[in-house]
Amino acid sequence: MTYRLDMSMMLAMHDALRRELERVARVAAKTGDDPRRILRAAVGWELFKKFLRVHHTSEDVALWPAMRDAVSADGLALLDAMEDEHAAIDPLLDGVDAALADRENGAERLGGLVDALVTGLGGHLRHEESEGLALIDATLGEEQWSRFGQTHRERIGGDAPTYLPWLLDDKDPRVVAAILDGMPAALREAYRDEWRPAYDRLNLY
């Protein structure tokens, strides 16, 4: 679908979240080692949780409220659904963490909790892409959309050197180039010379 607003960073974020869901699911399905031990110590699991929460909080604070006065009753119902779906994700993340810390019954619970997270977050991303992005595109002006992006960047804050390579991890080089081309030269250089090499040295899972 073609959008009036630039959705490239939003779609890149969704792709990154799906990538991490796949990685977490693979770890949880391991049979030769205790997946709880791996995930407990996994930098990738911590980054996934942190950046997912930043993304959802930014939407809840700077995106959905800005749209409420401008949409129809159907649009309001969709915004309510977006917020409800967000609210259902944090308990799943907490449930996985609780299973990781549970020495007695955590191993039995982990697989089902990860499956629920994959289903819940995956369903939300599909719903947002099939209906939410079109509503955003039809409702917000460029200034409001930029304000959301600024809120997101402010919430990333000092984690930007890890966030950007995390966001672009495993993406098609042409997509990476297109996203970086829209950024200041100094940031592109920092990504190439410092941020990406440091990220590549992380033992994610």
From TrEMBL:
Gene3D superfamilies documented for this protein: nmb1532 protein domain like
Pfam family, one: Hemerythrin
InterPro entries: Hemerythrin-like, RGS
Residue stretches making up the RGS domain: 37-69
Protein name, entry field: Hemerythrin domain-containing protein
Organism expressing this protein natively: Nonomuraea harbinensis
